[in-house]
Amino acid sequence: MTASANLAALRDTGVWIFDLDNTLYPASCNLFAQVDRRITEFIAEHFGIPQPEARERQKRFFRDYGTTLRGLMTEHDVDPVAYMDYVHDIDVAGVQPSAVLAGALERLPGRKIIYTNGSVRHAENVAGRLGILDRFDAVFDIAAGGYVPKPDPRPYATLVERYGIDPTRACMVEDIARNLAPAHALGMTTVWVRGELEYERAGVGAGVHIDHTVDDLPGWLAAVADATADAVP
Ligand SMILES: [Mg+2]
Prior knowledge:
Elements lengths: L2 H6 L6 E4 L12 H17 L3 H15 L2 H9 L3 H8 L11 H9 L3 E5 L4 H11 L7 E3 L12 H10 L7 E5 L6 H6 L2 E5 L4 H4 L10 E3 L2 H15 L2
Parallel strand pairs: 1-2, 1-4, 2-3, 4-5, 5-6
Helix pairs in contact: 2-3, 3-4, 6-11
The structure holds magnesium ion.
């Protein structure tokens, strides 16, 4: 199959599901690094402990529960709304509006949904800055998923049911490879936005099925939109 035929096969995609952080904007913006620091500060304040100790605790929660919030809720009954507001209080000026991404999303057929382990407010803040917020039909956030984070399969099932998604005609785009495993299990096409970090790469070539590996998401989506348009008789 040629590259464009490969992309044209995506023309039947009825729903595009996009992760937000380090997917719709590049990790080089260092935006998520700000969130990461805010999480450390939250833990330091909440427990009254020094930052290095808070950092250790954060890493343990992330490792044991998939997200720091899940660990804080499970072990310490932390209020998720207060946490989300605190950690997403960041400066998005480092994110550059992307005309290529906005144009590609405009031309791409199918519904588009943001699916994030963050909050709706964070998604609106970042997608607004990117100039793509109005390209999306919905944001499915950690609250919508009952505060159960990806890659637990349960919120994926909730997402599919809530939006009446046919998984065999859905495509999920993510930088954390292991978050694609439940999507593939449901029958979705999987797109990995190649990440450099260890936790982003975990599972690649070792159990996580990836249909498309992408380095430049705006460029790739533009190519998909072109291939899709070419494929229409
Ligand atoms: Mg991400």
